Amino acid sequence: MRLTTKCLRNIGKMLDFYSQFHPSPVSIKQFIDFGRNACEKQSFLFLRNELSVRLANIMQEIHLLPDNLLRMPSVGLVRSWYVQSFDEILDFENVDPNEPGILTKFCEALVKIRNRHSDVVQTMAQGVIEMKSSHEVDTPVENSIQYFLDRFYMSRISIRMLINQHTLLFGSDLNGHERHIGCIDPNCNVLSVVRDAYENAQFLCDQYYLASPELNFEQYSGTKSNVPIQFVYVPSHLYHMLFELFKNSMRAVVEHHGPSCQKYPPINVLLVMGKEDLTVKVSDRGGGIPRAQSDLLFQYMYSTAPRPQPDASNAPLVK
User: Fold this and answer.
1) φ and ψ at 278, to 5 degrees?
2) Beta strand 278-283 pairing with 267-273
């Protein structure tokens, strides 16, 4: 979509307006309570305002990024996606929800926005790589990027969560599980998600290294062992976290023991359900992490993996 200068000026005014407001916190309990007696009109009225607020806030933060990063092509692409999505949400700002077809059009617009933003994480990461390749990055700039990316990715998760709930409850999207309330599973089977994440990471590991470590697991609920652990959660969120951990773990094990190893040590997973929380411990024999590097682990601009090429179609397991 090509935006005219007049259109951009109008979007700028709306950005200033909506960025004055703070996003409304929404808990999983609130999602579930609403989902059990869902009203599409009520969801529409909430989301057309809430999404505008969340998009406007993060777009204003993007404007504050270091100039060198803003000039990177990939970051410019991400900015254009957010501008376009914000503009499309504004189309419903003063629309009467009782007008025929409006709720359907809104749901379709949300699906379009979600699909447009599906590669935001990779594209923003590519922008950071582009900047590191072309400019020196000092500590203050790195800290500002770290602070921004923390907020940026959290914002993306929250926006995607709101969109998924609406499209799964009222749209043509199907989550494939009758017990799910939108994308939330009131009885999420943790071990089942662990196995799915492990098997998909194992496929990548086998494809790249032609070998992979096996999986061992234990689970405890209170004082009972091997009792299936279930809790209220978004399975896709748990899957993504575990998938990344397994990729890291597998790469460490295979590279530490080398290609001549006949049988790689297994990855061990311990699941413990307490009175107030769930603990998932993933451990391996991949050589560990030097103490001097421990403070770098959660830095977006740090990785022990080879830097992927922009057009690589068979990139290694990373970070």
Assistant:
1) -115, 130
2) antiparallel
pTM above 0.70, yes or no: yes
Structure-token match 């000092």, residue found = 138
> What one-character DSSP code corresponds to residue 295?
G
What b/e string do you get for 122-137 counting C-beta neighbours within 10 Å, with b at 16 or more? ebbbbbbbbbbeeeee
Q: Name the active-site residue from 132, 244, 255, 256.
A: 244
Question: How high is the pLDDT of residue 175?
Answer: 56
Q: Which amino acid is at 176?
A: G
Q: Is 240 a catalytic residue?
A: yes
Handedness of CA 290, 291, 295, 298 (dihedral sign): positive
**Cα separation, 230 vs 187, whole angstroms:** 5
pLDDT digits (tens, 9 = 90+) for 124-172: 999 999 998 899 888 899 999 999 999 999 999 999 999 999 999 998 7
Among the options 108, 240, 255, 268, which is catalytic? 240
Query: Which among 117, 166, 180, 247 is annotated as catalytic?
Result: 247
Query: To which H or E segment does residue 31 belong?
Result: helix 28-36
